[in-house]
Automatic annotation (TrEMBL), chains A, B, C, D:
It comes from Lactiplantibacillus garii. Pfam families: GFO_IDH_MocA, GFO_IDH_MocA_C3. It is an enzyme of class 1 (oxidoreductase). Belongs to the Gfo/Idh/MocA family. The gene is iolG. Residues 5-125 form the Gfo/Idh/MocA-like oxidoreductase N-terminal domain. GO terms for molecular function: inositol 2-dehydrogenase (NAD+) activity; nucleotide binding. Keywords: Oxidoreductase. This is Inositol 2-dehydrogenase.
Amino acid sequence: MEKVHAGIIGLGRAGQMHLKNLMTIPEIVIEQVADVFIENVSEHLNDIGITNQTRDYHDILNNPKVDTVFIFTSTNTHEEIVTAAAKAGKNIFCEKPLSMNQVEEASLNVLREVKKAGVKLQIGFNRRMDPQFRNVYEGVRNGKIGTPQIVKVTSRDPDLLPHDLIQRIGGLLFDFTMHDFDMARYMMNSNISEVYAKGGTLIDPTLKDIDDIDTLALVLQFENGTYGLIDNSRRAVYGYDQRVEVFGSEGMLKAENVSNSTVELYNNKNEELQKPLPIFKERYREAYTAEMKAFVRSILKDEPLVAEGRDVIMAQRAAVAAKKSLETGLPQKVDTSYPLE
Amino acid sequence: MEKVHAGIIGLGRAGQMHLKNLMTIPEIVIEQVADVFIENVSEHLNDIGITNQTRDYHDILNNPKVDTVFIFTSTNTHEEIVTAAAKAGKNIFCEKPLSMNQVEEASLNVLREVKKAGVKLQIGFNRRMDPQFRNVYEGVRNGKIGTPQIVKVTSRDPDLLPHDLIQRIGGLLFDFTMHDFDMARYMMNSNISEVYAKGGTLIDPTLKDIDDIDTLALVLQFENGTYGLIDNSRRAVYGYDQRVEVFGSEGMLKAENVSNSTVELYNNKNEELQKPLPIFKERYREAYTAEMKAFVRSILKDEPLVAEGRDVIMAQRAAVAAKKSLETGLPQKVDTSYPLE
Amino acid sequence: MEKVHAGIIGLGRAGQMHLKNLMTIPEIVIEQVADVFIENVSEHLNDIGITNQTRDYHDILNNPKVDTVFIFTSTNTHEEIVTAAAKAGKNIFCEKPLSMNQVEEASLNVLREVKKAGVKLQIGFNRRMDPQFRNVYEGVRNGKIGTPQIVKVTSRDPDLLPHDLIQRIGGLLFDFTMHDFDMARYMMNSNISEVYAKGGTLIDPTLKDIDDIDTLALVLQFENGTYGLIDNSRRAVYGYDQRVEVFGSEGMLKAENVSNSTVELYNNKNEELQKPLPIFKERYREAYTAEMKAFVRSILKDEPLVAEGRDVIMAQRAAVAAKKSLETGLPQKVDTSYPLE
Amino acid sequence: MEKVHAGIIGLGRAGQMHLKNLMTIPEIVIEQVADVFIENVSEHLNDIGITNQTRDYHDILNNPKVDTVFIFTSTNTHEEIVTAAAKAGKNIFCEKPLSMNQVEEASLNVLREVKKAGVKLQIGFNRRMDPQFRNVYEGVRNGKIGTPQIVKVTSRDPDLLPHDLIQRIGGLLFDFTMHDFDMARYMMNSNISEVYAKGGTLIDPTLKDIDDIDTLALVLQFENGTYGLIDNSRRAVYGYDQRVEVFGSEGMLKAENVSNSTVELYNNKNEELQKPLPIFKERYREAYTAEMKAFVRSILKDEPLVAEGRDVIMAQRAAVAAKKSLETGLPQKVDTSYPLE
């Protein structure tokens, strides 16, 4: 079996979850792992048989056995590490965004290095590989609903994040809605060309202090003339609410929330033991592994990447436009050209 | 049993449907009916025992036995007939709108006459009495989802209307979306203060010739700071798609489409005999009778009207604002004051 | 329009419900009504325009305007009235059973008179006309599940009946399960040839005093070699539980319970506002009218009867066999021949 | 972390599936594996790091590092290996049955050795650990439906098995229905005291040649006076149909089939992309791991076993009684005493 020889960079909470998933994929050999606080996880790594550990990610980039790096470090390091990995000739998996700077030139510079190096870069838009959304996506692409006309994304987090975390990862639009922009664009197979956003702090008014919001309603226009609606909330008390609906000339496809339970309770109060709606890690558990498998296939069999540089740029532009729309109260055009063609 | 003594004005298709419903309400005595083409329905009326028929609606207004009129004539007659009925001292049931003129002064003039006469006027926002939406509404009012934050209305017609009919009843925004504006406002218990609309002709490009559209996406802001999203289409091939969702600080209530079937088919194709989604008259069958019963109660027991003059003005203003938003590409403020207080 | 000229016999609670339904069918002219306590309902009848009232059902049988009688009197009068109506040459609608005597000869005698008179007799197995069960039935007949192999009927009453009523109408097997025997036989299109029953008093032990039970589990064998399972309870606290499932060589069709609500509530307790399950009259509301319409069609257009004499005999035999099975602890064969062929 | 030191005996298809699950449980150290055809899987085992391999299961029993054996060999070896493992002082996990002989004395002899050795023996009634059924079970035990009165188990295989396999594993009653007997008994928390079975070959008449059937309907009585119904089929074309319903004095709990999809398709044919019903390994995927985890807890923390020797004896007796009921056409009493108390 041909294998991907992987180096893992970043073993915080996200990195550990991804590591666990990567270990279930037979085509992946984990050659080396790196974390600035490697001593915190060293014993556990030894336990599970990963002994080649380092504090310095450059060791991985210099390791000739490694052909592919998975970057799970915090956002503010992406720009530096992705650039260095590209220069080292490694294939790269990295979460969005590629740079902290919302001015896209920083991200584009990273992508230019990736292009120059001729390596593969997959962006962690994991929801594209969620079985439910994938099923909708494929149905739409296969013409089951005719020509798509309207896409609706409902995306609500189960609870507020700490303010300091928000400041590090970029606020509702850049941390959360960006996934929805990507999903809407993916479903419609067309770039977002205009955004109108309306939102505020209906849950936590102190979010204003850090220039963030918790509730958001958006109308999108796509390049192909179709429409989109997104609504976001930071606190859905009933769980992680993730639904997508695509309406077209010949029908509608929608993915409802996922539940783990098929048990129904009937009693004289006429209530039902409701399907406990899943939390974050459970909801996209399969997607996290599936995106890695897809990346492996794109490396070993040259299949198309699930999400690439262009995708993160387009989603980021939509988020920037939404932010400006919130600030100005006006709809904002979104540039759909891509300079790295 | 105290009774409402009714005169029915207008016996076209809508009028006949309403007549049938009215006949099932024991508190209603149908004293007289009027239609300009009364000869077309005369025999059928005799068959069902309604013999006091006239061509001229003034006969009903002059009939001292009649205390309440139900107006089912075409939109362009509402202004005249409602005004005359108010002057004749009759209680009035009438479909929206109250005038053809989208400048609201005409409607306000009608409402001034109603107010002066001290009669009851109920507007036919029948969806307020739909059992599903009513159930959501009451849940929201009773605090089941805490403080409402986002309302979403999905409203899609099963098929395009003829152009000439559209011209008579006023286009998507005034014929169709107006119900959704009213529903959104009803659920949130707050006036719409701003509208942003994006739409076009994705189904029938010739609608442009009559200045209409077939597909629409809207973001609303309410006076109380909350948000709304509406999406409309004129052609949902799978049926009449009418759903409402209200999201709040303590949960979410939503009304899914109504189906008449609980039958499930399992076979080796893993398809299901899908719940045949209902068409228009079926979907709101109960609502049409329920709104009449509510009107009877408001007359006989002085209960509050389900929908009154103010409601039609507010929905109309939202439609006018949406139209201007479509024309200008900009969000539009909506006046929420009511001059007839 | 050709009409059925009806006489109604029996205006107790059931009779009044049926009368209301009959009045909605345009092909039915109600010529005369009879009840031994006609004075109790006389005023109400006058109110709704039915003035030809009598205490004595013979007046109806002697009324030359009446061609069809609907018999809603108590079970112990069926034998006498149906026989007399047949002799008077009237078409007959009657609830099961045709006689109090569980020895079927009494019922057969009634059916012989019906046959001799050449009139139509429809048995009130209303569930055959329930839209859900009808949908399953038609799917099965149209081959959607291939060859049927197993039928399952779940049938549970919402609450215990008074002992004196039970004694008048015949206990669980004859009042309640008999409908399920008919439904199972209808779905499989084959006579029941063997019954094994197991049951007891898990809810109300005092039912033993009147030789009745409240809980029942049955296995059926059909003449064509297929199998059936029925379970009954007199008290399902969550409502009237009526489900049917037919399994076959190419799939399964099942009718779940009917609910009036499509509203879903999500909150932090992960419960759902459960579809309020319907009570008796609501659950079969449409079936009651549909069976009457079917009877009208069979009279006016000579369509087949929905349920005829043979059907009540077969269901009754299954009930008798089940009773004997309970008494002996052994399975019982059921005679499937029909002497009136 | 305290660990279970495991030896795996039998690496056919079932064994390999279980091995994969066992490897995901951190408390389990796999010390050695055995299979009579170990050469077939040797390379794969080396690949996944299991190098201590043997052809002879005695090597495992003699391995002092091994404290627990998991037996996944064919049924005809259970009696010998379980007995030997007990004598060797190992804790034992084994699939039902414990002996080929349907006369229970052989199984009881095995259980006597287990008792004498004082080791733990868990029977692989995996469905007890299925999350859906577990949820129902816990609801019933916690009184959510009051006193249970009726249990219904629907259990249908997706397709016929080869005749030679059937002969090795014991026919519908012993291979398949036995799980349902256990489930019914588990839900009602009471022994089965009587069985009536009706069945035949509606799918494959040649099953008669090997004294087996493919379709089955059963009525059970439990020691505590309650009732059960089971229906089985060997071929449900739509997938693996596994449902359980428990009805009680205060309500009903039921577990519907599990689907992996929440995607709904609406089109003008009013069909739905039906939730693809799962096949065997998928349906109980979680249960297979959960039963192992439960066994680990019972060893390390002395928690009660999920299913023990008594359980397999009781299920086996029900199967034997059902077989006799089929042969005689009569209900059969089932002994509920347990000699190894």
